[in-house]
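User: Show me an example of a complex going from sequences to structure tokens.

Assistant: Sure. Here are the input components:
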Amino acid sequence: MSKHAIADELSPELEAFQRKIEGLVGTILLVGVLASCALLLSGMVWRFAESGSFVFDYELNKMNLFQFMIKELTLTIEGKFRARLLISLGIVTLLLTPYIRVLASMVYFAFVEKNLKYTLFTAFVLTVLSYTLFLR
Amino acid sequence: MPTLGMPEMLGLSIAAGFVGAMSGMGGGVVLVPALTLMGLDIKHAIAISIVSVIATSSGSASAYVRDRITNLKVGMFLEVFTILGAVVGAAVTLACSERPLFIAFGGILLAIWLTMVFQVGKQWHPMAYQDRFSKWLELRGSYHDEAQKETIHYHGVRAYFGGPFMFCAGFIAGLLGIGAGALKVLVLDLGMHLPPKVSTTTSNLIIGVTALAGTSVYLANGFIDPGLAAPVILGVVVGAFIGTRVLVKLSNSAVRNFFLVVLLILGAEMIIRGIRG
């Protein structure tokens, strides 16, 4: 096997960009989890306040994330089951957190680093996730 | 749905998150057996567990990414493989009958036990060369190690093995509703020769996206009950938060031995239940 010398470190500007994307990714992940928990907690507290129990009487029957979101919004507009909307939003937020993180990474690789390889890798991940989450 | 009360779910989840954070194994490994012992069927337990894995992994990964130890490119490249594995694994679980799942779960727990028992504390040294493929993938980086007080430069190797193995790790994650972090770390550490801290932190990042891929399959098939998911997610996050705070105060060997025992018991118990039916 041929030996290749290790490439030099990244240029200073790429280093700076990398620092920024790392900061952004970290923040997205943290905010996503915290927001999700806040929503879930509020939903549970509200439910307890309105009904004295924590039981939520609904199930997710064979729908993807997109349909789920639409359904929840429709129900809210009709004025029903408000506590459950918070729970649904909490779960949706949690699921979208890694998704948005991947999206941000793709934008970074495409427009900031202008790195074709990693834009494609990230686009692939995003496509698979989008398909299984939203389109099936 | 069985009559699993909210207090029980919450308590169980907090315990699972706590144990998971302390052991570095993630909550799924404890959560799934615990939920099934409480009467939930294994497929629903797996579905809820994998949702909670998104929460715990994203939470811990955020800290490591901001500490700039995680390698985003290594993570992204390997996620290509893990998400495919997770989708396939989840599909297999849904198609499978329950008893093989118990046996598989127990088997994986014992496998993880083995990896922990045979962990040799060797010194990490940078490798002298990097294969062409890994070089093309730009799998290099550096981070500042607080403990050793120096900046460590490294590069990943053997990405052509790392990818396919990660498919398997993703498959196990999707199949059993766990993070499979121990297996991912193995690939990153032994396979791709990344420094230990980079391995664990990058694995954490990968776990989140992998869990999401698995979740989408369970979601699309109606296996996620929001009423159960909500307290579980909250509990696991709280438990993990407490666990990470407590972890620093305990001695390494005490924690390690405790979890070796827990793994062994849970693993054997799951296999026995699978065989007995």
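The lines above are the inputs; the final block is the predicted structure for all two components together. The beta strands of chain B are 140-145, 150-155.
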